[in-house]
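Researcher: Please generate the 3D structure of the following complex. Treat every line as part of one assembly.
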Amino acid sequence: MVVKNVMNMNPGDGATSYANNSGLQKAVISETLPLVDETLKAMFSAANGRFHAKCLKLVDLGCSSGPNTLFIISYILNAIEDLCSNRINSANDHHLPEFEVFLNDLPDNDFDNLFKLLLNSNLFNGKKTRHCFLYGLPGSFYCRLFPSNTLHFAYSSYSLHWLSQVPEGMESRNQENICIARTSPPEVFEAYAKQYQRDFSTFLSLRGEEMIAGGRMVLTFRGRSVEDPSCTDDSAHLTLLSQTLLDMVAEALGFEVCNEWVTLVVIHQGEYGNEWVTLVVIHQGEYGVIVEHVKKEDLYSFNIPLYPPCEQEVKTVIENEGSFHLDKLHGFRVRWDAHDNVVDDEDNPILKKHRSGKLVADCVRAFMEPMLAAHFGSSIVDELFGREPYDRMSPLGGCGNTCPHKWTPSTIGGRKLIDFSRNS
Amino acid sequence: MVVKNVMNMNPGDGATSYANNSGLQKAVISETLPLVDETLKAMFSAANGRFHAKCLKLVDLGCSSGPNTLFIISYILNAIEDLCSNRINSANDHHLPEFEVFLNDLPDNDFDNLFKLLLNSNLFNGKKTRHCFLYGLPGSFYCRLFPSNTLHFAYSSYSLHWLSQVPEGMESRNQENICIARTSPPEVFEAYAKQYQRDFSTFLSLRGEEMIAGGRMVLTFRGRSVEDPSCTDDSAHLTLLSQTLLDMVAEALGFEVCNEWVTLVVIHQGEYGNEWVTLVVIHQGEYGVIVEHVKKEDLYSFNIPLYPPCEQEVKTVIENEGSFHLDKLHGFRVRWDAHDNVVDDEDNPILKKHRSGKLVADCVRAFMEPMLAAHFGSSIVDELFGREPYDRMSPLGGCGNTCPHKWTPSTIGGRKLIDFSRNS
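Model: Done. Output below.
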């Protein structure tokens, strides 16, 4: 299966990088930790003889590149070591297992940055010196990633809402929407839903081949809070983005009238010696001020391969595919500015709203910029995010009735967290 | 063990990148192929039941980033598949094995470029669709890289002459030499030799823990053609480099006399209104022309962690360490311009010599630039390689008796190729 889209996060460790703008994703990971604990406990308890393997193989699917990757891997390793230490104390088992940890993402992911972070991390040292081997695994999780029956535990956070591709034939049918939105026509909902079913089913089937019997996965991804996608806009931040792009189209349309390439002919009649000559100075230039603009056809052909499924869709695919038992399915809400922990301007709602809106915009830019730049050209990105009135991006809302995109926590997308284990 | 030096090759795929200047390394790999075939045949022959594993784990240690990495991995996979196909035809074994291929280098290696090359390669498709899983393995091969008893085959080409660090206490003792050279004092030879013994012994011991019984390694690295390092200069290209640096020191010393920072005081006596005033315009600048130069103390403190061992040293470490049997040890010569395959100026020896010298200089730059830039600053690199009279770098020699570095094939370093298997 070919993953056709540019889907990496903003690389590096600069101001607009994913590494520095993934506080929301960190907040989501933190919410999942109790379930990670519970799952690992069930796997590695003293009573479960199946996981007395000398070497455990773990993977973070769609790990991206930044401190979150190190955080969750470190958390999982510590948790397993604690569980195994308890077992060692209560049985004749004297050795902690060795760990093979695979960090998976698409080949365009910033692995170089990730490897440098690893080098400076303490992942190799647990309570004792740890035999932990870390590998980069470039490839789509919609393809096989491991040999058969070798994987013990898979974790994936905030990646599985990315499809392998935009459903085929979407060109222009979704108009100015960039993914499914309230105003998308029914056939667009249907095409996205079918693509999701195919992709998630493929994912389960492949992991089913790779995991040992009894292996488990904890998967977290953006979800839809209701079944009917036309009833809610869980991706309101992306709707706002598409509307800003539409604003830029409208401005460009108005502008293009005076943006024709013209040839200016400057004619100067002068005297040279005693002959009258006519000098023609020709300069090919642009009339009007140059601004970056977005073409309507570019916006209409831009769709991103993102699909937040509802609970029932997730359940149905898991049951139909059949490789895994569903242990838990739990949806929860996370505010887009959940990582806003500045308190000093608590009494200044305007400042706070602006800052929380900026956090959301930075977060959206960190995961959308490579896709936007590949489609529209990198020159529009600064303006797109620079012109965004951040207040509108804030989940604190408060921009009044005139604004159709009043964001309140109740309209921020629900996320699904699933823990399920392979049928043994 | 901390690997203390900058030791990555030039990244990317530009004009000075390792990826585009590794023809010599390709020539070396090509020389080793018959021995790779022979080794794999011994491992995977129908008679050898030990390697009927469902999944084979292979590693390229010090793989760097470029087409050579893909070439050798592809060659090894095809060879194993052929051998296994023969076995399948002659036995009740119906399945080709799955492959886990690990690409190892230091974390600063250009893995991003390597992963992009992989994506466009045909490594995933052999004669049938191949189950081949490729992983990046950032880390020093002087540390543990794999869990115990899991590795089947290790290959390493042109990496093991790099030590884990410059021997301690080398500061100024090696004077203008940048690694062991004819004029190095005996204590420098000794310190480098001891560091090599420690490092290679560590390497063997670690791989011994990681490999399954019967696993094999094919290792190729730069070697020394004679035991006494003061009798020959197998690293004449690096001697030439250190002499060019010394030239730059000498020029800088001459230059520094007139390169003092001076304060220029420009005094202009003029009339302002009816009063006489004295205007003093002060400009702090540099007197003389700014050129990049090399400080003597920087050159004297620059040593690279490279050691080409002689055959006896290699044998001794392998025997003393004891984890592996030595199957074959074979030294051979490769001309530094072995990859010069342009024939159209065959009749023009001057052109040919210049081109072959340029090839050598480009090759040296590809592996030396990051180290040079980290120590002297990146600004000297263009001048260092730009001023090099390429003819002197050519193994065709011919620069007459006045040149002390007449390179002929007989003085180009011997390389060792070893094939040995783990004691079972």
